Amino acid sequence: MIEFGYARAGSADEAVRLAAGQGAARYLGGGTNLVDLMREEIEAPGFLVDVTALPREICETPDGGLLIGAAVKNTALAEHRLVRERYPALSRAILSGASGQIRNMASVGGNLMQRTRCFYFYDDAARCNKRSPGAGCDAIDGFNRIHAVFGASPACVATHPSDMCVALAALDAVVHIEGAGGKRTVPFEKFHRLPGGRPQVETTLSPGELITAVELPPLTLAAQSTYRKVRDRASYAFALVSIAAALEVRDGKVHDLRLALGGVAHKPWRAWKAEEALRGAPAAEAGFLAAAEAELADAAPLRDNAFKVELARRLIVTTLSGLAQGDAA
Amino acid sequence: MHFIVNGLQHDLLLDTRMSLLDMLRERLALTGTKKGCNQGACGACTVLVEGERINACLALAVQYENRPITTIEGLGDAEELHALQRAFIAHDGFQCGYCTPGQICSAIGMAREAARGVPSAVTTDLVMEEVELSHDELRERMSGNLCRCGAHNGIVEAIQATFVREDAA
Ligand SMILES: Cc1cc2nc3c(=O)[nH]c(=O)nc-3n(C[C@H](O)[C@H](O)[C@H](O)COP(=O)(O)OP(=O)(O)OC[C@H]3O[C@@H](n4cnc5c(N)ncnc54)[C@H](O)[C@@H]3O)c2cc1C
Ligand code: FES
Ligand code: FES
């Protein structure tokens, strides 16, 4: 690890100011990802601005949604009564990730910004365009069982590893951002990027910008939502494929739904085509399968990960069938 | 930098790069807390900060100034063991003992989480009022602590005997 300076910010304004005053500064949440990457020298910031002392509040917004401070710990978000009642998919997604200890350390902001678990990204003997832009990608023709089936590019086939973000993508979350130039908000869908020719740029956050909060809009159907995750071990492993889904059935028809997949792309994958195919259709297995097919038609599996397409198909069908039968959460 | 560990105050001059784990072991000679993977994957380094369990290996010490930290040394000693330490002995909750301090700190943090109603990935009813620490719940909640000797059954029994009411098991 290279030497770095450290300062603790008491407010968002102060954090942005502290970071702007230092070259190569980074914000520090729980450190569960950044400290590990700094030890591997994949990341080498010269200055850390600790943002864990920023407000850790979860408040109801005037329209009935929730505003979640970026410093809120993952455990605190998962256990919050209103999240459990109104957005169960979010609680479940968080609880299915990492371990009790890591969830106690990890912040909401850090979870959004966590980096891929691609083996080649971690292995400094391998070529990786994320680690050294322009070097090439050893995953494309390597062991790519855990890699992307959607939206990859010739430069990068890595996936985004977060569970929480898959639920946030499905629930129409909005990211609140503050930078030297002021404040702005970004729809969750536009926060993470596909790799394209610049896989080292993973989000639309500019250098120095701070995530201050994540907002959940009011979404009645989210009370009927859930998260399911398929992985190599029963607990404490990253997703091979996961799904966050919310479903509202009226008179036997799909009145409305939200669907996002995890483990399949460089970003949490909102399944727009499946949603489109299903809205207004009968809430029955044939329709769920057709919706899955509509989404998966675009999948482009690599040598080792075609199984993800089949897994995603089955997850979509069984999860929606379960929600249609009323076993929410 | 000022640290509060097991009720004692310490003023130390530290490099910002030092982890809480290295600070405890190398600067305070509290070697009960173990280093397994040093990357958050095994739980051997689990300590309690303000009663919450965390992995000391991923924690930069500087982030934990002025906050009460409890390590295995602060829970009990050879004369007076913590109830959970006695249960680990009674239920064969260890073989080599390397993972044990982390298991014990983790279980104490876990029990507090359960008592305030934190659900887990295997909780069927998310909006329940009270967590029932069944065998499956305990296994899931303790999955951040690995035991290479495979003493998991004894570990779960010891935790159950300590924290679960007879009628709930
Ligand atoms: C062993 C292990 C297993 C794991 N398993 C899972 C899993 O199964 N599922 C899962 O989803 N995750 C898993 N994780 C990842 C974990 O969820 C992330 O490490 C965690 O969410 C990161 O949060 P943090 O606060 O610790 O971030 P940090 O490590 O502090 O920071 C991560 C990044 O976010 C940036 N950052 C932090 N806060 C802000 C902010 N407010 N604004 C802008 N940038 C910010 C930092 O600069 C850094 O680049 C696992 C991690 C480990 C170590
Ligand atoms: S040493 Fe910290 S989790 Fe393994
Ligand atoms: S008792 Fe040996 S690792 Fe657990």
UniProtKB/TrEMBL annotation, chain A:
Organism of this sequence: Rhodovarius crocodyli
PROSITE patterns: FAD_PCMH
Domain FAD-binding PCMH-type: 1-221
UniProt keyword annotation of RNA-binding present: no
Keywords from the named record: FAD, Flavoprotein
Protein name: Xanthine dehydrogenase family protein subunit M
Lineage: Bacteria, Pseudomonadati, Pseudomonadota, Alphaproteobacteria, Acetobacterales
GO molecular function, one term: FAD binding
One Pfam family hit: FAD_binding_5
Entry keyword annotation includes Isomerase: no
Automatic annotation (TrEMBL), chain B:
Recorded superkingdom: Bacteria
UniProt GO molecular function: 2 iron, 2 sulfur cluster binding; metal ion binding; oxidoreductase activity, acting on the aldehyde or oxo group of donors
Residues spanning the signal sequence: none
Pfam family, one: Fer2
Keyword Zinc listed: no
Family annotation (InterPro entries): 2Fe-2S-bd, 2Fe-2S-bd_dom_sf, 2Fe-2S_ferredoxin-like_sf, 2Fe-2S_ferredoxin-type, 2Fe2S_fd_BS, Aldehyde_Oxdr_Iron-Sulfur, Beta-grasp_dom_sf
Key words, A-Z: 2Fe-2S, Iron, Iron-sulfur, Metal-binding, Oxidoreductase
2Fe-2S ferredoxin-type domain span: 1-75
Cross-referenced PANTHER family: OXIDOREDUCTASE WITH IRON-SULFUR SUBUNIT (PTHR45331:SF2), OXIDOREDUCTASE, IRON-SULPHUR BINDING SUBUNIT-RELATED-RELATED (PTHR45331)
Record-given protein name: 2Fe-2S iron-sulfur cluster binding domain-containing protein
Species this protein is from: Rhodovarius crocodyli
